[in-house]
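Reviewer 2 asked us to include a model.

Predict the structure of this chain.
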Amino acid sequence: TPNHGPNLEDFPPYVVVKPDLGGRGADVKIKRKGRVRWSPPKTQQPSNTTNWVAQEFVYTGQWPTSYRVGVFFGEALYAWRVKADPSRRPLSDPKSNSKAFKGGEGGGGMSIVSSGRGSTFELIDNPEIISLAERASSAFPKIPLLGVDILEEKPSGRLIAIEVNAVG
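Predicted model (structure tokens):
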């Protein structure tokens, strides 16, 4: 918030910051945790939010990839994978110590949002992803319809529920 910064002591070197209510990847940025500062969001959402969320950066591969599972009363209705346009410059793994990730050699300023112009959406049937989404939805028993966003960390394969959308 304008008056309170996050405690990022236990976070890895890079974090994702985004408005607490946004949409379509607006204002989603990756930053070194030591450079996280409050600034007014530029998002065009009607919420007029001034608060930000800081999340662990999860590397999903050279082209950002995410999953959305629609859950209705705890049961998945659909699941899809969203993969960024492969014509975009590939994103290096931050653990590789690549200059490209840190801003050198043409790096820096890259979007980590999977959806966008040229991205692909594909229906999937992945029991592990669906199960995680259904478990995450149980934290919201009074909201019947949810969109659960999940990432798969590369190369470990660890699945992480990063967000539950209850609006719209």
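The beta strands are 14-19, 29-32, 52-56, 65-72, 75-83, 120-123, 145-152, 159-165. Residues 132 and 161 are 7 Å apart (CA to CA). We have added this to the supplementary material.
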